[in-house]
Amino acid sequence: MSSVVLSVKDLNVTYRTATFDVEAVKNVSFELHRHEILGIVGESGSGKTTVALALMRLLPNNAVVSGKATLYSRDGNTIDDVLSIPESEIRRIRYRWGKISIVFQGAMNSLNPLLTVKDHFVDTAQAHGIDKEEALKMAAELLRSVRLEPARVLRSYPHQLSGGMKQRVMIALALMLNPDIIILDEPTTALDTLTQRQILELIKDLRKERDVGIILITHDLSVVADVADKLLVLYKGYVMEIGEIFTVYSRPYSPYTLMLINSFPAIGKKIIRLKPAGVTAKTNNRGCPFIDRCPFASIECSDADMKLVEVEPGHYSSCIKASVLQQQLAKVTTSE
Amino acid sequence: MSNPSQGSPRGPAPVCPYLQRTPQGYVCSITQRSVNPLGWYCVFDYMNCPIYIGHLSRMAGVKGPERKYGEDVVIAAEDLSVVFKVGSMFSKKDLYAVDHINITVNRSETLAVVGESGSGKTTLGKTLVGLYKPTTGRIYFHGRDVSTMTDEEYRVYRLKSQYIHQDPYSSLNPYKTVYDILAIPLRANKLVHSKAEEEKVIFETLESVGLNPKAYINKYPFELSGGERQRVSIARALLVKPEFVVADEPVTMLDASLRLEVLDLLLSVQKEMNLSVLFITHDLGMAYYMAGERGRAAVMYLGSIMEFGPAKEMLESPLHPYTQALLSAIPEPDPVKSRSKKVMKLRSLDPPNPLRAPPGCKFSDRCPFAMDRCFKERPPLKKVGNTWVACWLY
Amino acid sequence: MGVSVPLGRRVVNRVVDFLHQLYVSIVIFTSTGQGKAGFGLTVFVVALALAAPLFPYPGPKWSNVALQFIPPTLKPSPWYILGTDYLGIPLLLDIIWGLRYFLEIGVIAGIIQVSIGTFLGLLAGYVGGFTDRALNFAFNLLLTIPTFALWLILAVIFRSGNPVILGFILGILSWAGLARSIRAAALSAKNRDYVEASRLLGLNSLSIIANDIMPAITPYIVMNFMLSIVGGFYGAMGLAFLGLIPYSNINWGAIMGNAFYQEAAIFSPTGTIPVVILIVIQTIILMGFVYFANASVYVFDPKRRREVEIKLASRRRATAR
After folding, report:
1. Which domain holds residue A312?
2. Pairing relationship of beta strands B34-35 and B19-22 according to DSSP bridges
């Protein structure tokens, strides 16, 4: 893998409301390299979309962010403290879309039904100071890179395109200013199986052909298993595990990851079913959030500090029982 | 048949709702025969009522022409089509959501119906339980043609066929508590005869779906999570002791880690109650999980069945090109398997339009194995080994 | 679970439960500024209207032409605190009894509108098909007819100031708007999944309407009821203003009409005072009703009720410690 393009340390996001605070993201750290696809997997409430919005600097005003994120752009510039530089600076360096872009969930619905695809490209380009001629040339090239035929697609309105095609248009738009990082939030939900496959193949090709780092956010482990190089597992705002996808899958060092893997039935696959140990969390907000559902939990888990510990080279887990997990797992599976 | 005075292990047996008390004695309101309740196992569970079962045989026309379907077949669809009219006021076209389908569901089995959106699987499910009227073709319940049933028989058919919705956020009445949601159907069908009995049945049903009754009866749906709502949905469907349940993608809208629990619940309930389950999904992995052991599966495409047979065989070695394409397209959760999979290349990347289906085989415009004949004639379902396939390759 | 509760106890439980629900509703009403104003005003107005018999009736014996149009004063007696009308009758008494009069008209008009509108709207929305098309046509037809013109005609025909008759006239012609919105609400409720589920479970149409559809449309009904009362107010005042119903000094429209036609401003420098006072009072009252209607929507939302109950319970627990 080539050099690092994004480094995130101890990202914390808390939403302040009138009645209480919601700690959406807690001490999330990771690194993203060029030509790498990082898959962030989490269920609803895990904070995965918040992480994306934090990196895009698109969080609402009541969000309190702490932590450090550094972007190493390919033009040599290093942007320290992406999370704390003022908005005016963000605009000056054309951070959003120029350095990092995002394709939102349900992106197909983000296209303006009254504008043609060509208008979308021209509008976006002109907003970033690119003239119309240049924009159209780029548009044609981008559409071809997402396997769409420019002539037909450029003059179409969104309702004339299928879901898969609209998704690809959104990806092309996201690539317009050649960002260093592109975030894809649930790129394949609401698409049918065969179209999903095409989009996943496209993402793999993008990684090869372009000099970008890709963050893929999803709740579907199968999507990540197919395309990602690294896997980051989020649960209730905490990083439970992070590592290379093959190693995390074959040797999970966090019980949550294990449970997640076993929640996706596949043909010919054996499901390991484990019952929760029945340990209840102490009422304070500390400790492992998975304690009440974890089959290996014990009372110490409610005081766990959830710090990531390297269990294998390049493979980190926040479970305090990570070291003994593999043995316990072996015991359980052989006894079945 | 157990001694009626013993009752079920959980208390005295509740009285069959079809038992009517007349001045002449007890009468079964289905058959209008007088009965002696002491000699008759009056149960809430019709499956053990000899009168009800006898009645089912009668419904199947044992006297008349030969019984159309075997004893074991609970629901059968014969040449079933459901057509919707779409388009503007001046150019209405026919949309064959369900296109001449023949399908049977046996007692106590899981039939997984697999298809993408637009394949007609939801329409099929809803038509089989009576929510949509078939445009052509017939539906048989225990061998009896639904369109010629008497009112009483039809009522039994509707009660015995239930449906679990896909969206847990709109399938429960937001203005009623869980208790009311379950109590109202009980009272409406006169399935309970006292408040105490009503409470008992509701508590038992909630326990059977894994929810602690005391904690949940006073909750409103907005206080429940998606998984809990689906359980209440399932509980509601089970209240009337159905024989046939259509589960329409019941876990698709739930978080991944909660899905297995609900699926396992469905499987265990099926075993306990001898239910026939029609499990609708777009996920072949889930179809395998639900029907892989002993069930059957049907793959639908644009309203027609492409392949139909024992689930395990079909999903491990599919015959029809569409099934093969589906199988190669679904992402596997195992990264090793996923990346070693060969992706089947389809001839066209455009998704199918049900209004402009190709004249021959519906899959001919995308099938990599299409031959001349495929474009002209629609292949019928042919038996190949244990599986029925609609493909000219066989 | 099997112990049967004595009847007396059950009745008491029901009453306590009802009062508790009422309390929760009031808390929800008063949770917003608008709600407080609306609820307070409405309760005040209704109380005043019911208590009107405690006040002297502004009949002919109060009439004193010498005291015409006097500005607010405490002489000759505190009743003259808001001044007098054209006949020298204290305006305060006119207003209090007028409130009762208008409320009667408004409530009758409201009841008629709401019953016909809800029934036909439900019929159209739930049954659908030909019934729906026919009824919808009728609704639209009625909405194009200028109701005020019809009111004029009917008022002239009946020539009565009787509040019941007026309420009837005003109500019978203006239910179409409500029917349309009830129809829309019923249509959207009909297509929800849980209604489908009820049908599968063998519930008959009446049951489905009562359990599944009514809770969704109740907020509309309450709002429209309050707004019909407001409409009744305006209608009755308008008819009196134009002199189409027999003069009655408790009908504010008549007082204002009088001031207008008798050119009170020219006649007496204080002639406009009653008009201004009446306009201000009317506006406040009717705004109060509208705020009440707005706030009433939240009373039916089970989520809000649950939130309030939780807050009340935790407060109770806090004080118990």
Report:
1. 251-335
2. unpaired
Tell me the HSE value of B29 on the side-chain side, using a 13 A CA sphere: 14
Domain check: are A204 and A331 in the same one?
no
| Residues in A touching B330 (Cβ below 8 Å) | 193, 197, 222
All residues of chain B having their beta carbon less than 8 Å from the beta carbon of residue A194 are 116, 325-326, 329, 346, 351
Half-sphere exposure of A37 (CA within 13 A, CB side): 26
Residues of chain C predicted below pLDDT 50? 1-2
Model pLDDT for residues A134-191, shown as the tens digit of each residue = 889 989 999 988 888 888 889 889 888 888 888 889 999 999 888 999 999 988 877 7
- Strand order across the A181-185 sheet: A100-103, A181-185, A213-218, A37-41, A230-235, A238-244, A315-317, A309-312
* In a shared domain, residues A318 and A198: no
- Contact between A249 and B335 using a beta-carbon 8 Å cutoff: yes
In a shared domain, residues A257 and A289: yes
pLDDT, tens digit, 9 for 90 and up, residues C268-292: 677 778 888 888 988 998 899 999 9
Q: Are residues A187 and A331 in the same domain?
A: no
A146 touches chain B (CB under 8 A): no
Assess whether A97 and A21 both reside in one domain.
yes
Asked whether residue A168 is assigned to any structural domain, the reply reads no
Residue B92, helix vs strand vs coil: coil
Indicate the pTM of the whole model: 0.82
Residue C306 near chain B (CB below 8 Å): yes
Number of domains in chain A: 2
Find chain C residues with C-beta within 8 A of B189's C-beta: 201-202
Q: Where are the domains of chain B?
A: 1-62, 111-130+146-305, 317-389
Would you say residue B43 has pLDDT above 50?
Answer: no
Residue A258 lies inside a defined structural domain of this protein: yes
Q: Do chains C and A touch (3 or more CB pairs under 8 A)?
A: no
The H-or-E segment that residue C18 falls in is: helix C7-29
Choose the closest CB to C194 out of B170, B189, B240: B170
Residues of chain B found within 8 Å of residue A268, distances taken between Cβ atoms: 288, 316
Does the beta carbon of A193 lie under 8 angstroms from any beta carbon of chain B?
yes
Find out whether B130 and B80 touch, Cβ atoms under 8 Å: no
Average pLDDT, chain A: 86
* Predicted confidence (pLDDT) per residue in B157-182, tens digit: 888 899 999 999 999 999 999 999 99
pLDDT of residue A126: 87
Q: Do A211 and A256 reside in the same domain of the chain?
A: no
In a domain, residue A86? The reply is yes
User: Among A211-215, A313-317, B70-74, whose mean pLDDT is lowest?
Assistant: B70-74
Residue of C nearest to B159 (CA): C201
Partner B contacted by A300 (CB < 8 A): no
Reading across the β-sheet that carries B387-389, which strands appear in turn?
B161-164, B244-248, B276-281, B110-114, B296-301, B304-310, B387-389, B382-384
User: Cβ–Cβ of B196/C2 closer than 8 Å?
Assistant: yes
Domain B111-130+146-305 has CATH 3.40.50.300: yes
CB B134 within 8 A of CB B80: yes
CA-based nearest distance A37→chain B, Å: 13
